[in-house]
Amino acid sequence: MFNRTFVLILAVGIGVVIGAVSVSRFETSESSVKGSPQPTTGALVEPLDQGESSDLDPQQLTEVLESLIQTLDKEIVERRALEEQLDEVRSTVTELQQQLVARIDDDASQDRQEQTAETFEDRLLAAGFTLQQIETIRSRHAEVQVRWAELDDQARREGWIDTPRYLEEINKLTTGTNSNRNNLSDDDYDRYLHASGQDNRVVVGEVFQTSAAEQAGIQSGDVILSYGNERVFSLEQLNNLRSGGESGSPVVVDIVRNGLPMQVTIPRGPMGIQTQSELVDPAN
Predict the structure, then answer these.
(1) 34 pLDDT band (50/70/90 cuts)?
(2) Which of 34, 88, 136, 148 is the most exposed place for a label (fewest CB within 10 A)?
(3) Residues 6+ apart with CB under 8 A from 280
(4) Distance CA 224, CA 63 (A)
(5) Residues 6+ apart with CB under 8 A from 242
(6) If DSSP states are collapsed to H, E and C, what string results for 188-253?
(7) What's the mean pLDDT when you consider all of the chain?
(8) Between the CA of residue 237 and those of 110, 203, 228, 256, 267, what are the distances in Å?
(9) Which residues sit opposite 252 in a β-bridge?
(10) Cβ-proximal residues to 17 (8 Å cutoff; 6+ apart), any chain
(11) Quick one: 134 exposed, middle or buried, by C-beta within 10 A (0-12, 13-18, 19+)?
(12) In sequence order, which residues have a C-beta less than 8 Å from that of residue 86 and are 6 or more positions away?
């Protein structure tokens, strides 16, 4: 559209120039006529019909402009066709991208469904437990879950939910004589926690300056495996272990740092660290 407008403006400009040249030539001829005898009407018109005036024929100019306009129109049509083809290509690419995203989402959804369809028993089997062990574990697991729900309801009704008493009762429940913790070896309990989706590692976050942990060489990122020869699977268990026994007595702590097992000695009591629980595959 811009190019066609430009051509039309150019045509108008050329027309103006032609008119100016024609008027100028006419005035020049007229002035020369005033200084000489008056010619006949035919003699006055004759110079305008000869010589360079033939190069400024409006008809020829019109034909040239029409040719340019036709060429421009053709180019515009071709350009619009190319733009339409480009739009089609863009639409196709967008559709393919949407199909790819949908396919990825479908695959991810299918993976989640397959993982969800995997039962607790399947995970225990994959962890290496026998069918007899699985039956015993499931029975104890179900009993603890029912008792936990009852304890939670009681604590909410009586107003001591999330209190030290509540945490103590939960600890008794999960480590009692009929719990899986009390009836499985450390390694089996570790695999049981992982199969049931429960955190089984305590990881050091921040180590406070001048603390017992810093002086013992414990660093951020260390995994605490045991405290005083007792396996550690939760923060509550670690707190119970460090608060038991004689305060200040040396305790050996087994840690894993960057995949390598290490031992440090620390006085029993507050360690001066922040920790977090994580779920880790014992096989790794």
Answers:
(1) very low
(2) 34
(3) 194, 200, 201, 223
(4) 94
(5) 227, 251, 268, 269, 270, 271
(6) HHHHHHHHCCCCCEEEEEEECCCCHHHHHCCCCCCEEEEECCEECCCHHHHHHHHHCCCCCCEEEE
(7) 79
(8) 38, 13, 12, 18, 17
(9) 265
(10) none
(11) buried
(12) none
CB 68 within 8 A of CB 62: no
What is the rounded average pLDDT of the residues 136-161? 93
Q: Do 182 and 175 contact (CB within 8 A), yes or no?
A: yes
Cα gap 220→203, rounded to integer Å: 8
Query: What does each C-alpha distance from 207 to 17, 214, 219, 260 come to in angstroms?
Result: 89, 6, 6, 19
Using the 8-state DSSP alphabet, how is residue 35 labeled? T
For 203-251, how does the pLDDT look when each residue is reduced to its tens digit (9 = 90+)?
999 999 999 999 999 999 999 999 999 999 999 899 989 998 899 999 9
- CA dist 10 and 45 (Å) reads 29
Place of tokens 């450390």: 186
pTM of the model: 0.55
